[in-house]
Amino acid sequence: MRRGDLIDSLSADLEPVQPVAGTNLLTATWLILGVAYVMAAALILGPIRPGVFEQLVDNPRFLLETLYGVGVFTLVATVAFRSAIPAALTPTLKRLAIVAVAFWVLNFLYALINPALEPSMLGKRPHCYLETLVYALPPMLFAIYRQQKLYPLKPRDSALWAGLAAGLIPAWYMQVACMYLPKHVLLFHVLPGLAMAAVGCLMWVLLRRLKR
User: Fold this and answer.
1) Which residues lie below 8 Å from residue 2, measured CB to CB, with a gap of 6+?
2) If we measure between CA atoms, which residue out of 45, 64, 62 comes closest to residue 54?
3) I want to staple 84 with a disulfide (CB 3.0 to 4.6 A). Which of 10, 147, 192, 197 is the partner?
4) Do 62 and 119 contact (CB within 8 A), yes or no?
5) pLDDT in tens, 28-68
């Protein structure tokens, strides 16, 4: 069979399909719902740290840290959903997200020697590390579910980014909801948030086995 005939025979029954819509709206919707859910769930268990709004107004560094955290989890969420569409995620955007997360973590390491606020146990939440993990689960599961509705070529990697994005939201929110002690922040807010990346991978493996 000639090459032209072969191509014609293979493409004879193909039908046009609608291209996958952009992920900007999906990402924005997920972020709004995810942040609203985390805030609402956290408020049910306890109020935010007393005086935190005054700290945001009076301390530019703490305000910058808080705003930067929003930018980081927004960027990671963008990577998570774009990674589920072939050719939608550029290497530059992925590297930018990795660098942004790295600087976010380095900021808290720097706070060990030069804290942004006066260290205090005011606002302590007894099980904040569990709150970080539990709050991240529903947004992560929803993100992985939506990813599978797209066409992820590397679904495990996409699930990793989904878990990381979901984990960063409560880790960020604990900055205003829980006490400010740099070591505590690293161990009980930041690390559980980062650990959700591994949870995302494990969840994808579990879901894959359940489908068999």
Assistant:
1) none
2) 62
3) 147
4) no
5) 999 999 999 999 999 998 899 999 999 999 999 999 999 99
CA-to-CA distance for 39 and 44, rounded, in angstroms? 9
The residues, any chain, with a CB within 8 Å of residue 210's CB and separated by 6 or more, are none
On whether the CB atoms of residues 31 and 77 are closer than 8 A, the answer is: yes
Q: Token pair for residue 160?
A: 């990793």
pLDDT tens for 80-127 read 999 999 888 999 999 999 999 999 999 999 999 999 999 999 989 988
CA distances (Å), origin 26, targets 63, 86, 138 = 27, 16, 16
Bridge-partner residues for 120, per DSSP? Answer: 180
Structure tokens, 187 = 């161990």
Per-domain residue ranges of the chain: 22-211
Query: How do residues 101-114 score in pLDDT, each as one tens digit?
Result: 999 999 999 999 99
Q: Which pair of structure tokens corresponds to residue 202?
A: 């494990």
Rounded CA-CA distance 108/94 in Å is 22
